From TrEMBL:
Its cofactor is [4Fe-4S] cluster. Adenine glycosylase active on G-A mispairs. MutY also corrects error-prone DNA synthesis past GO lesions which are due to the oxidatively damaged form of guanine: 7,8-dihydro-8-oxoguanine (8-oxo-dGTP). It is an enzyme of class 3 (hydrolase). Its EC number is 3.2.2.31. GO terms for biological process: base-excision repair; mismatch repair. It holds the Pfam family HhH-GPD. Belongs to the Nth/MutY family. This is Adenine DNA glycosylase. It catalyses: Hydrolyzes free adenine bases from 7,8-dihydro-8-oxoguanine:adenine mismatched double-stranded DNA, leaving an apurinic site.
DNA sequence: TATGCGTGGAC
DNA sequence: TGTCCAAGCAT
């Protein structure tokens, strides 16, 4: 087997390509600054990596700018109110990340004097930091040759070595191959190069093999199956759930409740609702509820049709609290219900 | 190892 | 319209 020892050529080609075409992102240090000895800020790199978990660069950028403007250091973030962080995260999804982000910032301040651990092993012990994020921060910030494996790396390795076994079973083999390619020099730039390649040229559909820096080295391209890899086990189809949301208005206020820390939209504000998330509590008070129609929303594992009921009664609610809310602070599902009740307000 | 957990964009 | 998919982690 040719891959019995480390392979240097792909990393060389990828770094050459990265030096030509690296994309500017607000959490990256420009090549010019790096030449002057500027190091990436672990706080910013960590935050970007958490936001980028299962989320595109396009979706993350504005959130990253707002978070770092409002909380410029890990100590600032650690001192933030939970509700402010959850509100700022609203719309980005996977809300456990926001809770872990805050828990991690507080752990860094409390246990490490406000300085992030300078190794992948140290990072890995922090809340919300898994194998990928720990390796990425260590490689980018500390030049540790950690093996960085995300969805992009899996795809690039599967194609480069024509791995035909389907995911997730093929994962250990793809990690092994990624380890063979990881260079001792510039491991952070290398990791970002592979991910940039996966996000642009070596894309899931219609990979641009003709302009790929690894053209000629790629086994899948040579046998004409690059676009078919990586193979994946078929996912079960999503069931449809139904529910009701109760939008009670009073003056400019709406009735909201803080959702449970764990589970769907955990820790976020939402309208009292039932029938779709395990709850079945009924209306927050007896009143004449107007049927505003339904909103549709799709979560990771089910479709939701949520009937929206609205009332202006001044009855005493048994759940929730009337609040003035910025609709941008609501998770998208709840924002959809809000927009049905207040069609005049501008969408974000 | 399998499942739960958001959202918006591409096709 | 529907389906797939993204720089994963916790349990």
């Amino acid at each position: 087997m040719r891959d019995a020892q480390s392979q240097q050529l792909p990393a060389v080609k990828l770094l050459e390509w990265y030096d030509r075409s690296a994309r500017l992102m607000p959490w990256r240090v420009s090549p010019a600054d790096k030449a002057r000895g500027v190091r990436p800020d672990p706080y910013r790199v960590w935050m970007s990596e958490v936001m980028l978990q299962q989320t595109t660069v396009a979706a993350v950028t504005a959130y990253f700018q707002r978070f770092t403007a409002r909380w410029p250091t890990v100590a600032d973030l650690a001192a933030a109110e939970d509700a402010d962080v959850m509100a700022e995260w609203a719309g980005l999804g996977y809300y456990a990340r926001a809770r872990n982000l805050l828990a991690c910032a507080r752990a860094v301040v409390r246990d490490y004097g406000g300085v992030f651990p300078d190794s992948a092993a140290g990072m890995r012990a922090l809340p919300g930091v898994g194998p990928y994020t720990a390796a990425a921060v260590a490689a980018i910030c500390y030049d540790e040759p950690a093996v960085v494996v995300d969805g992009n790396v899996e795809r690039v390795m599967a194609r480069l070595f024509a791995v035909q076994d389907p995911l997730p079973g093929a994962k250990p083999e793809l990690v092994r191959l990624a380890g063979l390619l990881t260079p001792a020099l510039r491991p952070g730039d290398y990791a970002q190069a592979v991910m940039d390649l996966g996000a642009t040229i070596c894309s899931p559909r219609n990979p641009a093999c003709g302009i790929c820096p690894l053209l000629g080295l790629c086994a899948a391209q040579q046998i004409g199956i690059a676009a078919e890899l990586p193979r994946k086990i078929a996912k079960p189809e999503k069931p449809v759930r139904q529910g009701v949301a109760w939008v009670a208005t009073r003056g400019g206020m709406v009735l909201l409740e803080r959702r449970a820390e764990r589970g769907l939209l955990g820790g976020m504000l939402g309208f009292p609702s039932d029938g779709w998330d395990g709850s079945a509590l009924g209306a927050p008070f007896a009143a004449e509820w107007r049927d505003l129609g339904a909103v549709k929303h799709t979560f990771t594992h089910f479709h939701l049709v949520l009937q929206v009921m609205q009332s202006d009664s001044d009855a005493n609610p048994q759940r929730g609290e009337f609040m003035l809310v910025n609709p941008d602070d609501l998770p998208t599902l709840m924002r959809k219900a809000y927009d049905l009740a207040f069609p005049d307000k501008k969408p974000r």
